[in-house]
UniProtKB/TrEMBL annotation:
Transmembrane segments: none annotated. This is BZIP domain-containing protein. Residues 1-21 are annotated as: Disordered. It comes from the Eukaryota. It comes from Lentinula raphanica. Signal peptide: none annotated.
Length: 76
């Protein structure tokens, strides 16, 4: 019975944490929506964006191509 109040306190703390996390996520979602509206970006535009990893790979490839081109121009 000595452990019972401790569990109850822990359960209450976990519930508070979950509620805070949920409120924080909702606030972030509202902020994103406001920013998208301010910038005139629709959810369709966002959905049409390439995945970040694909864009990163594309930029890395372009960077490598430009570095090679740079080296060739320096040699000339």
């Amino acid at each position: 019975s000595a452990e019972r109040p401790e569990r109850s306190r822990n359960a209450k703390a976990q519930a508070r944490h979950r509620a805070k996390r949920k409120a924080y996520i909702e606030q972030l979602e509202q902020t994103v929506t406001k920013l998208q509206t301010a910038m005139g970006v629709t959810p369709e535009h966002v959905a049409a964006l390439p995945p970040p990893l694909a864009k990163i790979r594309e930029l890395e490839q372009e960077n490598a191509r430009l570095a090679k081109e740079n080296d060739e121009l320096r040699r000339l």
